[in-house]
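Structure ticket #2291
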Amino acid sequence: MMFKIGHLTLGWYPSEAGKMDDPDPGPKDATWHKVNVVEVKQIPGKGKAFITVRTSHGTLWECDLVVRSITDKRYKELKLLCELCGPYSVLCNHGALKMYITDCSINHAENDKELPLRVDPGDDDSALLNVATWTIKLLEAND
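Resolution: structure written out below.
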């Protein structure tokens, strides 16, 4: 699954085959949701006849995105995106949309609570592990 929020690419695009050895995986799950409001009204004088009327025009898409961070670099990038809120250009299988980050939660499970390890031995701090599961809520912008 491809997903790009602003400058951050989650997963890899077919044109970026060199990124396949990136230790940070793409999104685990993306759930899209949109609600259209429809009212049911009874027609006066017609007995039990009803009509439906759509009362919502231009409703917005919402997305619940679940992402796993492995490296400290990815953790900090996701944290910054959530703090800045947006609107971001979002490119994914669902389409291209402008979206705000309205909510996020970070889960460090029991098996994630280890001493900082390194992906590759060396002096580079970007190789530090910071394992967490993120749930990010996005809302389509209508500015």
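Closing remark: The chain has a mean pLDDT of 82.
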